[in-house]
Specification:
mainly alpha, 3 domains
């Protein structure tokens, strides 16, 4: 005798049946009445899911849209700044920073950028050689 394959139902369907206490809530799914009754008798169990507890999908979509707009704006500002630096001919390779606080502020800025981009890319934007930076 072959056994019928066991059906697995979405936890939200089970939850709706348990809360309504109606075994025939979803007739189109053809859930056996005995299965639905056992769910009602046992109650809700623990469920592990990826759904967020405090934020619904609409709030998350709005946050994503806001962040995407911010990324576009910051990208435009960065491109403009880099273009201005190139056009002006500015580069730390031709500048001598005599003031210690100026050197420290530039070094701190370079260190902060290393969290999100490689050191080589940062130094290339500043037009500073790696050997000059490490000195």
């Amino acid at each position: 005798m072959t056994e019928k394959p066991r059906c697995v139902y979405d936890h939200r369907i089970k939850e709706a049946i348990v809360r309504s206490r109606n075994p025939g809530l979803f007739p189109e799914l053809r859930i056996p009445p005995s299965t639905a009754r056992s769910w009602i008798e046992r109650g809700l169990g623990k469920v592990v899911s990826l759904e967020t507890a405090c934020e619904d999908e609409a709030v998350l979509r709005e946050r994503i849209a806001t962040l995407e707009r911010r990324v576009v704006k910051l990208t435009a500002i960065l491109r403009l700044t880099l273009t201005l630096l190139r056009v002006s001919g500015f580069g730390l390779d031709r500048q001598r920073m005599r003031d210690e606080t100026t050197k420290l502020s530039v070094l701190c800025a370079v260190e902060r950028t290393q969290r999100v981009m490689p050191l080589a890319a940062t130094l290339k934007m500043l037009r500073v050689s790696a050997s000059h930076y490490h000195v």
